[in-house]
Amino acid sequence: MLKYAYYPGCVAQGACRELYLSTAALTEALEIELIELKKAACCGSGTYKEDSQLLEDTVNARNIALAESLNLPLLTHCSTCQGVIGHVDERLKEAKDNEPAYFEQVNSFLKKEHCSPYQGSTEVKHLLWALVADYGLDKLAEKVQRKLSGLNCAAFYGCYLLRTQDKLPYDNKFHPESLENVFRTVGATPIYYQGRTQCCGWPLSSYATEESFKMAGNHIKEAIQAGADCLVTPCPLCHLNLDSRQPEVEKVIDEKLGLPVLHLPQLVALSLGIEPEKLGLNRHIVSTKSVLEKLEMN
């Protein structure tokens, strides 16, 4: 049985609660054990380092240390959390050998707060990588009860999952196939389009809203034109810009879109026979009814 220290992040416990629900349903069905890190802090989604790199490193060293204390890898289902915490893990592992004074400075702050020290003894792994590299797609295929035949899925990787970390042992940073391989495993058809590895626009949304929505709109339009029935993303922040804000995006680009956006665990869980209600598919802003009708699951 696979076992992880589970870092759900902020968005999945708030605006994208359906991600939290579907991750729980999926991992239970696959007999993957999650030990939730209740004392973990927000990773900062890349904002801490704007003020202080030391702040970002210290906060996330503590998050990783919580997983290390359980002797488990840290699992997240958020690409942004993966990118931030994974990059901190890389940086501190290098600092341990090449910048020992900085490494000790980070741990000195953890010591003051009576926290376990960061050791660099584990790894940070997104749910996608856990499915592909740890669980294995062959084993996943054996668990599929309901092939998602006829469903055209367009991946939206976004930025953080692919390019924030220096090393990416599970896929190619610029020509990834992990999501598409998962689609094939559950019986769906991958749809390729230009924007699948580009930024969703979320980081711009607080200060350049129109530009952010134009970016999101262009990606959605490209996916529709390529024949997609839905987008599937491993990042809840991308989901917010592509799904929750899609009505606002439509106003900015003056075009109707209506493309459902699924979280990765929702799609996989559907193929395992888990009912849509357990996966929070009724919580989306853009209705997922068209997806369920195509799968004859309504």
Would you mind describing this structure in some detail?
The chain has helices at residues 17-29, 48-51, 53-68, 79-98, 100-112, 127-143, 160-163, 178-185, 209-225, 236-244, 246-253, 264-271, 289-294, and strands spanning 3-7, 33-36, 74-76, 124-126, 152-155, 189-191, 230-233, 261-263. It folds into two domains: 3-125, Glutathione S-transferase Yfyf (Class Pi), Chain A, domain 2; 137-294, 3-Layer(aba) Sandwich (Rossmann fold), CATH 3.40.50. The mean pLDDT is 96. Helix 1 links the parallel strand 1 (3-7) and strand 2 (33-36). Helix 3 crosses helix 5 (100-112). It contains 13 helices and eight strands. Strands 2-1-3-4 form a four-stranded parallel β-sheet, with helices on both faces. A four-stranded parallel β-sheet has the order 6-5-7-8, with helices on both faces. By secondary structure, it is of the alpha/beta class.
